[in-house]
């Protein structure tokens, strides 16, 4: 078959995706093998995979494929998250475009639209995962609103409520005015913004003058119920028992004293708005202040504000500043930089708000989750940075606000009687039974009188059960699949959800399975653009994954994102790395074409084996060395580093050196033994690379010769022995070839001109197996050993060995002498720095003996090289 000029990804990707599916390679059922379980962090059904997802899925696939090829029963569970806030916003927008107002629909009608939307768009993500080459078990797809999953979430809520860990109450929470729902603390992102600080006078009641406060939110003045100063602040001690008037609305409020106030910040006086600031709320509780909520759920001002009713909070900010100035209350404004809280879901500026919500007590759940990581039962990679972050959050954990004012999600299983009595039950019937326990069998209510809580549960309250419920561990406790696959092997996720998801999954796993949910956590870094900005749709700097795959191929995309992705560190995404991946594809493809060409050598194939194939011995040694290195790197979750080593092994060692060393002379026959070795080596290299680049490796593996298996399930062999002597000889061979070629270029000696090479070596025996390859690689008609310098030659130093290159062409040694003198000057400077260090008694006495010995070796090597270079100059 005629091979194309370059590797064509699309047909190979389609063919092998179908082949793997037909063979059911990625379907997993419990058997006698050890399980290797990974659950995909379920992406939201709201759109497409971004580059962060691409990195995450690629890392998982590499781990899963390698485990499958290492004797494990690999089970990778795919799925998606219903993403209550984000998805509801998308559905509301879709309805608006159809001219439908959500508020005119029943809950049931809205949910029909939501599921219709999910069916239409949810499959996009799965298509992307498949196009990327991810080896997931498609029979195990789970969605967090599946019936079994929904029931699991409700069951856990009821259980935690009965244990006294879930409660309902009015507290200060974070409110998203766009999504019109409560948020947990972790869903608020604080960013620096340019703001104004407004200095406002509050006139005193019955006293001359005013007290000045500074605020960045003048629109909240309308909800003020006190002015607060520090009791130790002498500036205000005369105001004990005094009152002031809130500007514009003339509300009479007390001046109160509390240690909370920082005397050195601003004017040392604070306006207290208990309804709209958590610290003000706490002070209000302490001093029994009135709470006036001046904001509606959508961020407009309420009737309680008295002024600007129904107007947006930010429009009011501009208007009230002008009105305060007109009234003589605005003293001045200053431009400042401060931090505002933004909703991670809608990007709206969050408002603190008093609201009745459902909360989960976290302290009892957090303690065992912290212990599991501190004791090393769960290992975090990289652990140095993220372990501290994990510990800090759990040691300072707050109760979790778990209710959301939405319709898309698991509806809270709480029910209300007409008299306000609240009962919790998995079903209405169960809730009515609980009500009868409270009211007695002769309660004045029927089951039809109960109404269910309108709120749904926070999305994370469902996804914290993910490693358990994908195997139905909550709804079918102790089932056989759960016993086999749980705990999972490794969780691969982004560092930004360590609180939302990782810590909470550990809590849920320990609470319901009495066992950790995973043994290792691998944190990927954040994917950023070349300017260092986080990729986002709003910036328009996030490329489309499918477009990248169409342009470069899935393997090149996987290579490009992994080659620059050390664990935990942010990745600066650049399409140039994908170009590098495509070039790598073509490099391997060209190696295949070369091998196929050798097979078709017109002079036939020799049957006898090569007597001493050093190139084959060296390549075997390199493969075994890299196998061992890659094994260790995978144990340390250093996947990017492992790829770099494999890349160098294939590009440099195999393609650039080995194939050149084995290439038949022009017009010569291909040696059968060398050809067999070459095919075997290429197969092993493809096998090693397969977890990273599955499509091209599988394609070339089968193009090489007829195979009895597929790489996807071909098992790795243990790394073999390593011969350090062969490794050393290979290094010498490469260095000599490079040095001679470099000397040819510098001295204008054409490649077709044969040379004579004289070698003054410390150990001539090391060179003996290399001579045949060396002669062909440097075009030498003679290689001989010498004990002394050879006159009228180009002199080259390779380590401690001296090379003398002799040509028929008369040489101009002046430029060579100039270069040698530069080399000597450099080495003498280096030697002086080493001698200075060794002359420092404190260094010699305090440094580790092995460090001192390294410096002494540097000194001896430099002295030897200087001596050799001076001899070379003398011989010119």
Which properties best describe this structure?
876 residues; alpha/beta; Isoleucyl-tRNA Synthetase, domain 2; Isoleucyl-tRNA Synthetase, Domain 1; hypothetical protein PF0899 fold; four-stranded antiparallel sheet; four-stranded mixed sheet; 44% helix; globular
Give a verbal description of the structure.
- The longest helix has 27 residues, at 849-875.
- The chain starts with 8 loop residues before the first helix and ends with a helix.
- Among the domains are: 187-352, Isoleucyl-tRNA Synthetase, domain 2 (Alpha-Beta Complex), CATH 3.90.740.10; 552-722, Orthogonal Bundle (Isoleucyl-tRNA Synthetase, Domain 1), CATH 1.10.730.10; 723-811, hypothetical protein PF0899 fold; 812-876, Orthogonal Bundle (Helix Hairpins).
- The model has no long low-confidence stretch (mean pLDDT 90).
- The strands form eleven sheets. A four-stranded antiparallel beta sheet has the order 6-5-14-16. Strands 10-11-9-12 form a four-stranded mixed beta sheet, with helices on one face.
- Helix 1 crosses helix 21 and helix 8 packs across helix 14 (498-512).
- It is 44% helix and 17% strand.
- The chain is α/β, with parallel strands linked by helices and 876 residues long.
Short account of what is shown:
The protein is 44% helix and 17% strand. It is an alpha/beta fold and 876 residues long.
CATH topological fold name of the domain at 552-722: Isoleucyl-tRNA Synthetase, Domain 1
Strand order of the largest sheet: 6-5-14-16
The proportion of strand residues reads: 15-25%
Helix content: 40-55%
Low-confidence stretches: none
How many helices in DSSP terms? 27
The whole-number mean of residue pLDDT values reads: 90
Q: What class would the helix/strand composition place it in? A: alpha/beta
Which second-level CATH architecture of the domain at 552-722 applies? Answer: Orthogonal Bundle
- Report the biggest beta sheet as strand number plus sense, adding barrel if it closes: 4 strands, antiparallel
**N-to-C span:** 56 Å
Q: Please state the overall shape, judged from the principal axes of the Cα atoms.
A: globular
Oligomer: single chain
In CATH terms, the superfamily of the domain at 552-722 is Isoleucyl-tRNA Synthetase, Domain 1
**Count of extended strands:** 31
Per CATH, the class of the domain at 552-722 reads Mainly Alpha
CA-based gyration radius: 36 Å
């Amino acid at each position: 078959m005629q091979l194309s000029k370059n590797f064509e990804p699309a047909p190979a990707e389609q063919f092998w995706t179908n082949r793997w599916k037909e063979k059911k390679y990625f379907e997993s059922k419990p058997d006698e093998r050890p399980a290797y379980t990974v659950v995909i962090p379920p992406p939201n059904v709201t759109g497409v995979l971004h580059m962060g997802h691409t990195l995450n899925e690629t890392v998982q696939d590499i781990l899963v494929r390698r485990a499958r090829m290492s004797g494990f029963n690999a089970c990778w569970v795919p799925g998606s998250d219903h993403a209550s806030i984000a998805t509801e916003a998308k559905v509301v927008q879709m309805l608006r475009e159809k001219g439908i107002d959500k508020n005119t629909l029943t809950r049931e009608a809205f949910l029909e639209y939501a599921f219709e939307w999910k069916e239409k768009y949810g499959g996009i993500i799965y298509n992307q995962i498949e196009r990327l080459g991810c080896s997931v078990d498609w029979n195990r797809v789970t969605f967090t609103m599946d019936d079994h999953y929904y029931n699991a979430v409700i069951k856990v809520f009821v259980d935690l409520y009965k244990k006294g860990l879930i409660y309902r109450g009015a507290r200060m929470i974070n409110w998203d005015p766009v999504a019109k729902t409560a948020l947990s603390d972790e869903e608020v992102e604080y960013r620096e913004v340019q703001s104004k600080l407004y200095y406002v006078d509050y006139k005193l009641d019955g006293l001359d003058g005013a007290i000045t406060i500074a605020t960045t939110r003048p629109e909240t003045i309308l909800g003020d119920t006190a002015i607060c100063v520090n009791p130790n602040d002498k500036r205000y001690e005369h105001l004990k028992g005094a009152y002031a008037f809130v500007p514009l609305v003339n509300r009479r409020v007390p001046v109160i004293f509390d240690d909370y106030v920082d005397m050195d910040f601003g004017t040392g006086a604070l306006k207290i708005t208990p309804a709209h600031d958590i610290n003000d709320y706490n002070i209000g509780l302490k001093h029994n202040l009135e709470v006036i909520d001046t904001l509606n759920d959508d961020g407009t001002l309420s009737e309680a504000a008295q002024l600007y009713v129904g107007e947006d909070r930010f429009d009011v900010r501009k208007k009230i500043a002008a009105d305060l100035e007109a009234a003589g209350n605005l003293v001045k404004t200053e431009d400042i930089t401060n931090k505002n809280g933004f909703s991670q879901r809608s990007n709206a500026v969050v408002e603190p708000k008093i609201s009745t919500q459902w909360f989960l007590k976290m302290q009892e759940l957090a303690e065992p989750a912290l212990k599991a990581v501190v004791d090393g039962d769960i290992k975090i990679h990289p652990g140095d940075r993220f372990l501290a972050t994990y510990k800090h959050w759990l040691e300072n954990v707050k109760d979790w606000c778990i209710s959301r004012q939405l319709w898309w999600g698991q509806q809270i299983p709480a029910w209300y009687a007409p008299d306000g009595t609240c009962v919790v039950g998995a079903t209405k019937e169960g809730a009515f039974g609980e009500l009868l326990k409270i009211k007695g069998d002769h309660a004045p209510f029927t089951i039809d009188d109960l109404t269910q809580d309108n709120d749904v549960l926070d999305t994370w309250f469902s996804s914290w059960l993910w490693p358990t419920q994908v195997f139905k561990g909550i709804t079918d406790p102790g089932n056989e699949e759960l016993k086999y696959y749980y705990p999972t092997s490794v969780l691969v996720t982004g560092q930004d959800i360590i609180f939302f998801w990782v810590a909470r999954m550990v809590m849920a796993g320990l609470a319901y399975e009495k066992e950790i949910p995973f043994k290792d956590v691998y944190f990927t870094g954040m994917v950023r653009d070349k300017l260092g900005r986080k990729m986002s749709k709003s910036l328009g700097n996030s490329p489309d994954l499918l477009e990248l795959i169409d342009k470069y191929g899935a393997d090149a995309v996987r290579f490009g994102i992994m080659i620059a992705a050390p664990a935990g560190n942010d990745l600066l995404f650049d399409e140039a790395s994908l170009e590098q991946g495509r070039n790598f594809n073509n490099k391997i493809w060209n190696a295949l074409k070369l091998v196929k060409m050798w097979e078709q050598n017109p002079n036939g194939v020799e049957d006898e084996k090569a007597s001493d194939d050093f190139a084959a011995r060296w390549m075997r040694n390199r493969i075994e060395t890299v196998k061992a290195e890659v094994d260790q790197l995978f144990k340390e979750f250093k996947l990017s580093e492992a790829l770099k080593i494999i890349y160098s092994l294939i590009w440099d060692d195999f393609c650039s050196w080995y194939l050149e060393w084995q290439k038949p002379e022009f017009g010569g026959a291909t040696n059968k033994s060398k050809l067999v070795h070459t095919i075997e080596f290429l197969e092993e290299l493809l096998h090693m690379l397969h977890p990273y680049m599955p499509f091209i490796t599988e394609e070339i593996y089968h193009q090489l010769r007829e195979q009895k298996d597929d790489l996807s399930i071909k098992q790795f062999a243990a790394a073999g022995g390593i011969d350090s002597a062969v490794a050393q000889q290979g290094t010498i061979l490469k260095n000599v070839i490079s040095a001679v070629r470099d000397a040819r270029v510098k001295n204008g000696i054409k490649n077709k001109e044969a040379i004579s090479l004289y070698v003054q070596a410390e150990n001539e025996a090391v060179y003996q197996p290399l001579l045949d390859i060396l002669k062909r690689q440097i075009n030498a008609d003679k290689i001989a050993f010498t004990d002394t310098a050879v006159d009228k030659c180009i002199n080259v130093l390779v380590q401690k060995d001296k090379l003398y290159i002799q040509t028929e062409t008369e040489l101009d040694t002046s430029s060579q002498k100039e270069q040698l003198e530069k080399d000597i000057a450099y080495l003498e400077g280096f030697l002086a720095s080493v001698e200075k260090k060794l002359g420092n008694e404190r260094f010699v006495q305090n440094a580790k003996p092995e460090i001192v010995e390294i410096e002494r070796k540097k000194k001896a090597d430099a002295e030897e090289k200087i001596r050799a270079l001076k001899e070379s100059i003398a011989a010119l």
